[in-house]
From TrEMBL:
This is prolyl oligopeptidase. It is an enzyme of class 3 (hydrolase). GO terms for biological process: proteolysis. The keyword Hydrolase applies. GO terms for molecular function: aminopeptidase activity; oligopeptidase activity; serine-type endopeptidase activity. It comes from Streptomonospora salina. Residues 362-573 form the Peptidase S9 prolyl oligopeptidase catalytic domain.
């Protein structure tokens, strides 16, 4: 295990990365406040919108905020580290005074305020308790949550709603005032008040329910659209979604689509990452690969009136398609220097799992890399949420190899198009994407010069070793059956590394594990590095300090991004030579490494 970053960026590239990282990360308004990171700051805080007047600028990580209806107080979930284990806090919005409740442990849990702002409730998943709190006096009442299930609270009705789910059963939506079940659903993503109805996003589409009668007022679903964000006011519903690999905005009235528009900015693809209704209007957060996020009026996007920002980056973003080996078309979103000609160092990334779409969002490493002559590409492979339900299912479970093959096709297509060469190509992926890129690179060692995996479960035969591993069986397959185990062994990155034929030199590998990761353990990556070194490959393992699977402070993000760019520079020959690593296993692990598994 390398104690410090094993790869250093060139000074000019590091400076470019730092410059792009200084851009603000604004949030959308919520009851007149936003959760944002101001330009030049390293941490997120809570600010009045749109003036950006500070309310709270803590040292901790803010997982979530929930202002009271009167705006006098804000419930926050604060984590000391990046492990996503937070405690509830109450902020006095006038003074910024913060009172923490360390016994109330949360993890992105919804907070339900009473209409008069006198009390709040939270189903605190970390504590396993339903908490009813008077923020003025600190008095609270608690009761236990169902064992083995999950409870989430939402606004709606007289006393709010509860979504109760248990493994293997439909999710129930309950009116807490009457204790009546309003409906059962395969799953519930979110519930919003919508005029005199409730808007339920159930994973397949939307339903508007009457609270009193529990009857369905209208339904809307489109199997080709993945909903990524949702807002409602009166009978109007604004959807940010993905269709045919592009970010789109839709407006619904009474369940009918009345406006539908792809999101573009300055003539290039852009992404509406979230939407909200506040301060009397619908808002959207818009960004692109080299376009820092900014809030805009959603109406301006829907009508095409949104002013294009002044661009300072010499880059352009385009879309191309490449044929997969079964004839399907795989979309690749490519960002290149405007004057680029011929093959250039290229970082190719993907996600390809859990129906999550890979979109051209703002990422400071992209403009930093393109400023120095590199290209950056996103492959929208099967298993992701870019092209509808069928596309997602085509790369899930026993079809996982399909997404790996799609990534290989994207890599070869970029080479065939003269945009890069194999010796200039680096595959990079995080979490599920780390599984895909590593499996792809090891299936065809001549495909690329290097591969970076960050926070990925690389031994698919041992998912139980990870804190959340049991939840991933539906995505990868069940190693508990003979058929499932055989399929997983065929695609598992660790199995591929251990079974590399003698004399086949694998691409350079950088395995990054996160010091404060509460989802993915480090042992898989350690073992894969060991296997590659035994095969004579160049492989490094690095534990990124003060970094987790969720939100991270900017100093940690800079260290992480700079290390990946440094690896890409060196693997493609645009930096200093790659280090020579011994053929022996990595050094002694940190004492807590196996404990975290």
């Amino acid at each position: 295990m390398t104690s410090g970053p094993p790869y250093q960026t060139s000074p000019a590239l590091d400076a470019a990365l730092a410059r792009w990282e200084r851009h603000a990360r604004p949030g959308l308004p919520q009851a007149g406040y936003s959760l944002s990171r101001l330009a030049g700051r390293t941490r997120y805080g809570i600010y009045r919108f749109p003036e950006q007047i500070p309310v709270l600028e803590p040292d901790e990580h803010i997982l979530r905020m929930a202002p009271s209806p009167d705006g006098a107080r804000i419930a926050v979930q604060l984590a000391d580290t990046a492990d996503e284990d937070a405690v509830l806090g109450i902020v006095d919005a006038a003074t910024g005074e913060l009172h923490r409740y360390p016994e109330i442990r949360c993890r992105y849990d919804e907070v339900l305020w009473q209409a008069d702002s006198s009390r709040l409730e939270v189903a605190a998943s970390g504590s396993g308790r339903l908490v009813d709190l008077d923020p003025a006096s600190g008095e609270r009442r608690e009761s236990g949550l169902p064992h083995g299930g999950r409870v989430r609270l939402f606004r709606g009705g007289r006393r709010g709603l509860a979504a109760q789910s248990r493994p293997g059963r439909p999710t129930e939506l309950i009116d807490r005032a009457t204790l009546r079940t309003l409906g059962t659903f395969p799953g519930i993503v979110r519930v919003l008040p919508c005029g005199d109805a409730l808007l339920v996003q159930d994973g397949t589409g939307l339903q508007a329910l009457h609270v009193d009668s529990a009857t369905v007022r209208w339904r809307w679903a489109d199997p080709d659209i993945r909903i990524t964000s949702l807002a409602a006011h009166g009978d109007d519903v604004l959807i940010a979604g993905v269709r045919e690999g592009r970010s789109v905005l839709l407006r619904l009235v009474e369940g009918r689509v009345v406006e539908h528009r792809p999101v573009r900015c300055g003539g290039e693809p852009a992404v509406a990452t979230s939407v909200a209704y506040d301060t009397g209007t619908f808002h959207a957060l818009v960004e692109g690969p080299t376009l820092p996020p900014r809030p805009v009026a959603a109406e301006d996007l829907l009508t095409g009136r949104a002013a294009a920002p002044q661009r300072t980056d010499p880059a352009r973003t385009t879309r191309l398609t490449v044929p997969a080996d079964d004839g399907a078309e795989v979309t690749v979103v490519l960002t290149s220097p405007k004057d680029a000609e011929g093959p250039a160092p290229l970082i190719l990334t993907c996600y390809g799992g859990f129906g999550v779409p890979s979109l051209p969002e703002f990422e400071p490493t992209v403009p930093a890399w393109t400023e120095h002559g590199g290209r950056y590409a996103i492959a929208q492979i099967r298993g992701g949420g870019e092209h509808g339900t069928a596309w997602r299912r085509a790369g899930r479970g026993h079809n996982k190899q399909r997404g790996i093959a799609d990534l290989a096709a994207a890599a070869r297509g970029l080479v065939d198009a003269g945009l890069t060469r194999a010796d200039l190509l680096v595959l990079a992926g995080a979490s599920h994407g780390g599984v895909i890129v590593t499996a792809c690179a090891l299936a065809d060692p001549g495909l690329c010069a290097g591969v970076v995996s960050t926070a990925a479960p690389l031994d698919l035969l041992n998912l139980d070793a990870h804190p959340l591993g049991r939840r991933w069986i539906g995505e990868f397959g069940d190693p508990g059956t003979a058929e499932g185990r055989a399929r997983l062994e065929a695609v598992s990155p660790l199995s591929r590394a251990e079974n590399l034929a003698p004399g086949i030199g694998p691409p350079a590998f950088l395995g990054i594990v996160l010091d404060e990761d509460s989802r993915v353990a480090a042992d898989d990556t350690d073992r894969l590095v060991t296997a590659l070194r035994r095969k004579g490959g160049t492989a490094e393992l690095w534990r990124a300090p003060r970094t987790g699977h969720g939100g991270n402070h900017l100093d940690s993000l800079h260290r992480l991004g700079a290390t990946i760019l440094g690896f890409a520079e060196q693997a493609t020959g645009s930096g200093v030579p790659l280090p020579t690593t011994p053929a022996a296993p990595p050094g002694t692990r940190c004492p807590d490494e196996t404990e975290r598994a």
